[in-house]
Write a structure and sequence with these properties.
Elements (H helix, E strand, L loop, with lengths): L1 H33 E2 L2 E2 L8 H9 L8 E11 L4 E4 L4 E5 L5 E7 L2 E12 L2 E6 L5 E5 L7 E8 L2 E11 L4
Antiparallel strand pairs: 1-2, 3-4, 3-5, 3-11, 5-6, 6-7, 7-8, 8-9, 9-10, 10-11
Length: 169
């Protein structure tokens, strides 16, 4: 009988230790996933008021229903990635059959006919003729965040930001 009690206590202790290790591992994994590159994905992005101001002062933008403003941008080459100031905002106009994406800065916009594909709760947008960029957004969701990946030569630029719909700007 004492042998059974000892085995039961050891089994309970082993379960308790296993549970404790599992919880600490999960908390560590979750903490690492929510903050990548200094971005906390669980919080709304801070506004990029400087780029919003450029948008508001621009008289060279096309008609659009969505405005996307980056808050963080990285320039990556074969050896490293470094933070850089975002200077390009995105405008989306049209509909699924006739989608237009514009990449704009203080000097005006470059406009591209694009395709729109669903990927779960996200939308992928790419130019019909490859131009070296991919745009993915959480369209019609609460957070309205996006990522844009552009290339220049063999370098890559990755921007993260938020989108506003017509009624919000």
């Amino acid at each position: 009988m004492n042998k059974n009690i000892i085995i039961t206590v050891q089994a309970l202790a082993l379960c308790f230790v296993g549970y404790f290790i599992f919880q600490n591992t999960q908390n560590s994994v979750n903490a690492n996933l929510t903050q990548v590159g200094g971005i906390d994905w669980n919080k709304p992005f801070e506004k990029n008021l400087a780029l919003e101001d450029i948008y508001n002062k621009s008289d060279k933008t096309i008609s659009h229903h969505t405005l996307c403003i980056p808050v963080k941008k990285f320039h990556c080459d074969a050896s490293s990635c470094e933070s850089t100031d975002p200077k390009v905002f995105n405008l989306i106009s049209g509909n699924r059959e006739n989608l237009i994406v514009s990449r704009c800065d203080a000097n005006g916009c470059d406009t591209y006919k694009s395709v729109f594909n669903d990927s779960g709760e996200y939308k992928n947008i790419q130019p019909i003729d490859p131009k070296g960029f991919l745009f993915k957004m959480s369209y019609n969701t609460v957070d309205k965040k996006f990522i844009e990946i552009t290339t220049l030569g063999l370098d890559t630029f990755v921007s993260y930001g938020y989108c506003l719909y017509k009624k919000e700007f």
